[in-house]
């Protein structure tokens, strides 16, 4: 089968590799669509970062020397069901996979937080295959059924949608509350969709790029500001009440100014939820937390969020069609996928790759 194999920065090749053979407890999934994520882009640009370089990943035992098949945001259909598979999976079932790989032994895993595992890994990053290939051999426990009426294209975006659903849940957000989203990249846009679907009274966006602001507007954001032109905490108070602020803020920019504006935009006892991964530690004015009794929380990946995601997609509460900016065959992955995203990132939310070449699905 054809697979996109990552061998280091700027080195991804479409290679002919062995099609995986069915194993007990696994289902062989024929990949329909796989999204390219910012994480993949970072690996391509300046990796290996999360991809295990010289030291093999402690759970998968794989490293860069083996060649890593990328792709963790994908949908497909089951082609073969292995022995001893729990659940009623059968050939032809439409599925998405949950990409978190965990050790099942550490404190986090034992306490139901495998998304915070000490040996955390990911399908399509840590080895054992990925979605930028014609087939993926999936442990049955990673599978979730795609509801009827939801296209496999939309379903391919259920992974980043799960990240947003998890972040909103972790923030303690309640229906009717107001929210500020700092950064309108793909995750900022997914967060906006989730907040609107869950009944936010106001979703305010802070994003310097006008192209990205227009994507957030498409996602349903109520108010859009540029941190380069607007004093964000002041604009927030014009919208919420002169001494009030938002109930929750989401840091999805990974930038100190955005973090600071997010904290200052919170009401008393408000919560800032950080979804960004930081390359350098930011400075935080702790007195802004102390005297207003505000909280900062973190959220990583997802855990038990896929049922909510599948229900939101299946019921039509969330539609993601307008987030697909291009669909490309696997052969065009580097030129029309990675290079396009590096050069024209702002014009895209999601580029989907179709490894089988059958774009009728
Ligand atoms: Zn991702
Ligand atoms: Zn663990």
TrEMBL record:
Names of the cofactor(s): Zn(2+)
Pfam families: ADH_N, ADH_zinc_N
Residue span(s) of domain Enoyl reductase (ER): 8-353
Organism: Rhodotorula diobovata
GO molecular function terms noted in the UniProt entry: (R,R)-butanediol dehydrogenase activity; zinc ion binding
Gene Ontology CC entries for this record: cytoplasm
Top-level lineage group: Eukaryota
The family this protein is said to belong to: Belongs to the zinc-containing alcohol dehydrogenase family.
Family annotation (InterPro entries): ADH-like_C, ADH-like_N, ADH_Zn_CS, ER, GroES-like_sf, NAD(P)-bd_dom_sf
The name this protein goes by in its record: Putative chlorophyll synthesis pathway, BchC
PANTHER family: (R,R)-BUTANEDIOL DEHYDROGENASE-RELATED (PTHR43161:SF23), SORBITOL DEHYDROGENASE (PTHR43161)
GO BP annotations listed: butanediol biosynthetic process
PROSITE patterns registered for this protein in UniProt: ADH_ZINC
UniProtKB keywords: Metal-binding, Oxidoreductase, Zinc
């Amino acid at each position: 089968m054809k697979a996109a194999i990552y061998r280091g920065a700027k080195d991804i090749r479409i290679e002919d590799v062995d099609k995986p053979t069915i194993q007990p407890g696994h289902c062989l999934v024929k990949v329909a669509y796989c999204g390219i994520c910012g994480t993949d882009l970072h690996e391509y640009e300046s990796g290996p970062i999360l991809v295990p370089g010289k030291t093999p990943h402690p759970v998968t035992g794989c490293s860069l020397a083996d060649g890593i098949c990328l792709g963790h945001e994908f949908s497909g259909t089951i082609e073969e069901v292995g022995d001893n598979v729990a659940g009623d999976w059968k050939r032809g079932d439409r599925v998405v996979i949950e990409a978190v790989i965990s050790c099942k032994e550490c404190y986090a895993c034992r306490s139901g937080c495998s998304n915070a595992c000490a040996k955390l890994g990911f399908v399509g990053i840590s080895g054992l295959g990925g979605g930028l290939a014609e087939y993926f051999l999936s442990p049955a426990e990673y599978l979730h059924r795609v509801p009827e009426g939801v296209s496999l294209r939309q379903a391919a975006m259920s992974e980043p949608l799960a990240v947003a659903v998890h972040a909103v849940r972790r923030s303690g957000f309640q229906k009717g509350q107001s929210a500020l989203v700092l950064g309108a990249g793909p995750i900022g846009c997914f967060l906006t969709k989730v907040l609107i679907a869950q009944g936010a009274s106001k979703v305010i966006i802070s994003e310097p790029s006008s192209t990205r602001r227009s994507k957030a507007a498409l996602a349903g954001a109520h108010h859009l500001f540029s941190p380069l032109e607007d004093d964000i905490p002041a604009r927030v108070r014009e919208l919420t009440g002169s001494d009030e602020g938002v109930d929750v803020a989401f840091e999805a920019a990974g930038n100190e100014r955005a973090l600071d504006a997010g904290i200052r935009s919170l009401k008393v006892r408000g919560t800032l939820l950080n979804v960004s991964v930081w390359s350098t530690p930011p400075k935080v004015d702790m007195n802004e937390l102390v005297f207003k009794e505000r909280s900062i929380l973190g959220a990583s990946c997802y855990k038990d969020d896929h049922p909510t995601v599948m229900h939101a997609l299946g019921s039509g509460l969330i539609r993601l069609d307008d987030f697909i900016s291009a669909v490309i065959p696997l052969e065009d992955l580097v030129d029309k996928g990675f290079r396009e995203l590096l050069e024209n990132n702002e014009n895209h939310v999601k580029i989907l790759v179709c490894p089988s070449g059958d774009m009728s699905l």
